[in-house]
Amino acid sequence: MKRALLAMTALALASPASAWAHATLVQTKPAFAQRVETSPGQVLLRFDQSVEALPNAITVYTSKGRVVSGQTKPNADPRVVTVPVQKLERGGYTVRWRVTSADSHTVSGVFTFGVRHRAPPATAAFGAAGPGTAEHVVRWLYFLALALVAGGLGFRLLIARGPLPPAAERRFYRLAGLGAVGAIEVGVLAFLLRAEDALQLPFGNFLYGDLSPLAKMRFGVAFVAMTLGFVLVSALMFLAWLTDRPVLLWPAFVVSVVFAAGLSFSGHSASDAGHSWLSELADWAHLSAAALWVGGLVQLAFVVWPLAPELRRDAFLRFSRLATVLIAVLLSAGIYLSVLRLPRVSDLWTVGYGQVLLVKLGLVSLALLWGAAHHFVVRPALERGAPLFGGLPRSLIGESAVGMAILLAAAVLVESNPPPQPTTSPPVALHAPAP
Predict the structure, then answer these.
(1) Which of 219, 232, 297, 220 is nearest to 258 (CA)?
(2) How many CB atoms sit inside 10 A of residue 251's CB?
(3) Of 91, 180, 236, 261, which has the highest C-beta tally within 10 A?
């Protein structure tokens, strides 16, 4: 069997890749996301091989969807396609193109540029519908995966520090491993959904879409970095399980928390008006604290409680102390970001972003009350040596469910646009009437 797999691999490597290659866009004028100071007379695309282009192969749109390009012109170089454009006013523009390569595959793409104006991101190109329900669900699944891996590793290293019973150890690795693999797979799905929305192509043509404009955005760079980071986390966890060396979980934990920052450095905290390194740091702290709290609750409720009864008391007391710190970080960072993103208090009930934030605040309030009952009622009783409450496992599961609902609200907020910041108009000069 191994020899057959080896032969198949060698045959695949020996096959000429060029026979299956399709045309690749290598240059555009204006360039991806370029800001130009004067209106270009044409838009030019250069490919790595000859292509065939119909008269409407390139279309240039204003931000409101008005077409400002003519028909594609034939070129002496079959690798080059150009289209004339009208004199462009100040603003952002979207270029959508579609050509046929020598292998008969239709290759499509989109990019943006600006004339005396910042180019819009490719995900905000004209024609892109924006985040929908599918992207909200995928982002929520990504947050859950991050909580399972980062929170699970944090719980194992900071709370359940000693050896675990074999059954509990296996379940820990399964849950944390599910989170690590989920972060990779769900991350790929999130990138593809965002790319499909930007390109606005049916799936058959999307397979040959040009994703390079998205890969060059903050979102694309963060996607690549986070995917590689969680591949490393998965490898470290596998080695820790394979060699029975839990010490390898420490670098896996550090990498998972550090690479979670990719979401903060590519989201609202890094691109909205008024953003700074402080807003990015607060967003990362907010996300990390939520992941550690929810992931720790899952480990406590589904690993320690059913499979390690001798560790229940100590694990609950340790996690209660850690959760106090995590919730303090979560609240502090969340309040700072809310004040930064909502310029007016009325935005809480007049705009969609504020309404979702109100739902999240309600869930956080419920979680605080739940955690307060554990901290101020259950924890002192356990410290005095009282027996474990019979309903505590169900209470932990309920708090975990509330935490997951908070992550869902956070996923919707991440994909929503905060209200615009109020603009301050320059003072009007008062002129005295002429005598």
Answers:
(1) 232
(2) 13
(3) 180
Beta strands in 80-163 (DSSP E): 80-84, 91-101, 106-115
The topology under which CATH files domain 22-124 is Immunoglobulin-like (2.60.40)
Q: How far apart are CA 228 and CA 233, in angstroms?
A: 9
Cα–Cα distance for residue pair 288/274, rounded to 1 Å: 22
Q: Which residue, chain included where needed, has tokens 């290659």?
A: 21
**Helices (H), ranges, 200-303:** 203-206, 212-215, 218-243, 249-259, 261-264, 268-271, 277-299
Asked if 94 and 110 count as a contact pair (C-beta separation under 8 A), the reply is yes
Tell me which DSSP letter residue 49 carries: S
In tens, the pLDDT along 77-87 reads 999 999 999 99
Cβ atoms < 10 Å from Cβ of 11: 9
User: What token pair was written down for 159?
Assistant: 């709370």
Burial 377-406 (b: 16+ CB within 10 A, else e): ebbeebeeeeeeeeebbeebebbbebbbbb
The residue among 243, 236, 245, 237 whose CA lies nearest residue 176 is 237
Cβ-contact 338, 403 below 8 angstroms: no
φ and ψ at 339, to 5 degrees? -65, -35
* 137: confidence class by pLDDT, cuts 50, 70, 90: confident
8 A C-beta contact, residue 172 and residue 164? yes
Distance (Å, whole) CA 400 – CA 394: 10
- The tokens describing 428, both together, are 């009007």
% of the chain exceeding 90 in pLDDT? 36
Domain regions of the chain by residue span: 22-124, 133-414
Full-model pTM: 0.74
Q: DSSP class of residue 297?
A: H
Q: 401 near 337, Cβ under 8 Å?
A: no
CATH 1.20.1630 for domain 133-414, yes or no, is yes
Would you call 69 helix, strand, or coil by DSSP? strand
User: In terms of Cα–Cα distance, which of 66, 57, 131 is closest to 93?
Assistant: 66
